7-cyano-7-deazaguanine synthase (Flavobacterium chungangensis), 199 residues
Amino acid sequence: MESIKKAILLSGGIDSICLAYGLKPDIAYTIDYGQTVAEREIYVSNFVCQKLGIKHKVISVDCKNLGSGTLANSDNLSISPSEEWWPFRNQLLITLASMQAIKDGISELYLASVRSDNFHKDGTKEFYHLSNELVSFQEGKIKIICPTLEFYSHELVSKYNVPLNLLSIAHSCHISNIACGKCSGCTKQLRVKHEIKME
């Protein structure tokens, strides 16, 4: 029986760091898709992988001209549900990671979306179910798994017993490689740090 080879999408935010710590996958992918904060996301993800002994790969595909909102440093589209909305972003990330995962012999690709992400359609249980159906239907039969959907970020810290010093480097800013402290990503991170008494 073949062993299951696991990969994770690692952005360097609290949620994906928690999942990486709990899962200890064979490989972690960080994707530079043209987002403003790619440099810091790559740095943090590489640091985490070195600490955890996980192989780290960066996938670079510049899609900035397709983005909108703070992550693309551009105006939002009129249908945008939030300031950081990037059309079909999670769908894009799953596709790019799956393309690399095929080459790496990956059986399961894991992502970390939490309960508060269901504000967006691509942060819902239905989205991940449909994504898994589509990707696993195709050659390679990779499974898309998001085991964190029923939890809030601070609950993941407890669930996986993540050391707080590992989370101290997390980066969730949507605007800058140095945290702005004001965007929705920074606000969420500050709230989570307060909830886990990390201030």
